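Pasting as-is:
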Amino acid sequence: MGPAARGAFPLFAVLLLAWAPPGARASAPGDTALAAPAGTLPPPAAAPGPGPGHWFYQGLPYGSDAMTHPLRLILDGGFGIMQFDSRSNRLDDVDWERGWNRVREDLTDPARAIEVGGWWDWVQREVLPFSANKEDAQYWPNYTLHLIGGGMTYVLVREWYAQHAIAHPQAMAIGTMAVYHVLNEVVENDRRPGPTTDALTDLYLFDPASILLFSHEGVCGFFSRRLHMRDWSSQPCLDPVTGAIENQGQNYSLKLALPRSDRWSLFYYFGNHGEGGLTYTRPDGSAFSLGAGFQAKALREIGGNAQTADLVPSYGFFYDRHGSLLFSVTGAKTSRYAVKVNAYPGLLKVRGRTAGLFVAWNRDREVVAGVTVPIVPAGVAGRW
């Protein structure tokens, strides 16, 4: 059984537990003490409506929470596939017209795209977790990144709009989700030779389902209060010399407190990767996590216009405060970034000022580094 398929059945158990009446498995929006992470000081009481501390957006002035912004979400999510070794990360290398035409044709004639491989092949590859073969487990990122990750991100950005007094936060959040998901499909499909089911599966099925699923307060409470799900996305930077986007990618963390322990939790970090391990949380709310697992190195065509991911070992060390990531070191056997260090705003201060930094080394020992600030969606990177 492949790594992706092994996680499918626990995932369905999580979804069943989540679909409970509000309050059945999660504390009320303003009650954070009952389900606080192991050893964590409870954050300030939440407002009765969307806002800091409600579900996923805490409004903290440091770490990954301070980097939350709709435009940064579009960069992290829309260009996520350009992390792979099999893709250039230069924006000029994206065939925008071809990618848009591919997505448009597949969305306007979904039956034609599905019939390339057949309806049953589409269902078992991308919709239902029937197959234990890694090459048939395209459903795994659909559930983890689109259904769960997408639903959590929808609530996060909705709360961000509400906290920043933007009118119609729900409609704005749906619009933001649509923009970055369509952008993701255009970039991903700019080289596909013929009809594919990628875009229609995500945009017609899993993305709308994610919004519906996380519109249920019980689901939000389960993932926010019990699994302590947080957005630990990267700090995207643009290289003005090469035209490349560096250090982008959507990442999420989960923590599940161990029974009879005030300090230790099970830990899972995922995006185009998955690392499991443990978290140790101190009484002041700061936490240290360590995990190991696998990362997708490249996408490979396997026939029938289907793709699978080539996986390589990966690892990560993380330091966060009240769930907001401040520092990470991640590594994998990839050519793009063999080792990557991210320091988020709030970790380092000089004369009262702070910024985010990232430094990465590739397998050729070339160094890429960048600087970010919370008020600007993208930082500036350079290569040495």
